[in-house]
Write a structure and sequence with these properties.
By secondary structure, the protein is α/β, with parallel strands linked by helices. The chain has 11 helices and 13 strands. The strands form 3 sheets. The chain has a 6-stranded mixed beta sheet. Helix 2 runs parallel beside helix 3. The radius of gyration is 19 Å and the shape is globular. The chain starts with 6 loop residues before the first strand and ends in a 12-residue tail after the last strand.
Length: about 375
């Protein structure tokens, strides 16, 4: 049963489509979908005791309330780093990255819709996660990745039985190749960018914080941003919790990008509502957030501004040092996943108060930065 699920709608022009149509984007503007969904009322922190110890304990807040393919994703530990900064260890997931939160939603939806095959595109972590959950669901899967993607990630994708397609030309060329395949009949595009079910999975990151902190949230949430799936999921959860009367104040969103690839930070600090004219991206250790033209840019910028938050950028040396620092504290995290700790360590007045940073992917995914 597709519980509580209604229809996709385009946030730009209002176009609507049934979810069963396998239409992966708005046919008018070719932009990402949002989802018509309202969480159930009447569920507070005290009602969660004794429930299943995974993200599915928040079933009243999700557009799919059960999953036949769950691997126990979610409910990751929250540990202090300083007196004011805590880290949520989202690399302790079945495929070693936070992307499992959204990928299980996409694969469960695909399982219920029964497509001929599933396609995805990724710099690695989303691809490994979609491949794993498609394997669990018995769905044929093809994952498009940029040439040069970490061999450890491509090995994991193939280990799960997915077909791997390495695309020359970088992240945008990879997305275009996957979208061309997604236009074919009978294909489910498991896009962590275009399909809003992914955001409804990543929002459980904040629901877990809300529960673990006794029905409140920290003063700020620092989030790494490439395509913005964790940030938009976090913003969605904050909005829902506030609308349900389950929190009184909303945390600031501190969006973090690598200095080498920071189109959203540039637009934010230029007071622009959308991306500025493109500049060639530079190489960065934070490959997972090296996205030069994120399709949900306008939504990301609006969410950060509405929260009273800001954008911070981190240079490559700070990423290296943050990875070494976390490893010395017993936390081995991939280079993309350390970006928020790198930013918060030197963020000064832009941070302030209590902050949670996500450690998004395991260090085994990429190894230590040179």
């Amino acid at each position: 049963m597709l519980a509580n699920m209604r229809i996709f709608h385009c946030p730009v022009d209002g176009t609507r489509s049934p979810i069963t149509a396998l239409t992966w984007c708005c046919p008018v503007c070719r932009g990402p979908w949002d989802l018509d969904f309202t969480p159930a009322r009447g569920v507070g922190v005290n009602a969660l005791s004794g429930r299943i110890d995974s993200l599915w304990r928040y079933k009243e807040f999700l557009p799919l309330d059960t999953s036949a393919i769950s691997l126990g994703e979610g409910r990751t530990p929250l540990v202090p780093l300083t007196d004011t900064v805590s880290a949520k260890l989202d690399y302790l997931m079945p495929t070693l990255s936070f992307k499992d939160r959204g990928a299980v939603m996409l694969a469960e939806l695909a399982r219920r819709l029964g497509p001929d095959r599933v396609v995805a595109d990724s710099t690695g972590n989303a691809g490994t996660s979609v491949a794993a959950y498609c394997a669990r669901a018995g769905l044929p899967c093809t994952v498009y990745v940029p040439e040069g993607t970490s061999p450890k990630k491509t090995e994991q994708i193939q280990a799960h039985g997915a077909r791997l397609v390495a695309v020359p030309g970088g992240r945008e060329a990879t997305a275009l190749a996957a979208r061309a395949a997604a236009d074919e009949p009978g294909v489910f595009y498991a896009s962590h960018v275009f399909n809003p079910f992914f955001l409804h999975g990543t929002k459980t990151y904040v629901y877990e914080l809300w529960e673990d902190l006794g029905g409140r949230l920290p003063d700020a949430l620092a989030v790494p941003v490439g395509n913005g799936t964790l940030l938009l999921g976090a913003a969605l959860a904050v909005s829902e919790l506030h609308a349900l009367g389950l929190i009184e104040t909303r945390p600031r969103l501190i969006a973090v990008q690598a200095e080498a690839v920071s189109p959203l930070a540039a637009a934010f600090h230029a007071a622009a509502d959308d991306l500025l004219p493109a500049t060639p991206p530079a190489p960065t250790l934070a490959e997972g957030i090296a996205i030069p033209r994120p399709p949900r840019a306008r939504q990301i910028l609006a969410a950060v501004r509405a929260s009273g938050g800001t954008f911070l950028t981190v240079p490559e040396d700070a990423i290296r040092e943050a990875q070494r620092d976390l490893a010395a504290r017993g936390l081995y995290v991939e280079t993309t996943g350390v970006a928020c700790w790198a930013a918060v360590r030197g963020g000064g007045d832009a941070v302030g108060g209590s902050v949670v940073v996500p450690l998004c992917g395991a260090g085994l995914k990429t190894g230590m930065a040179g």
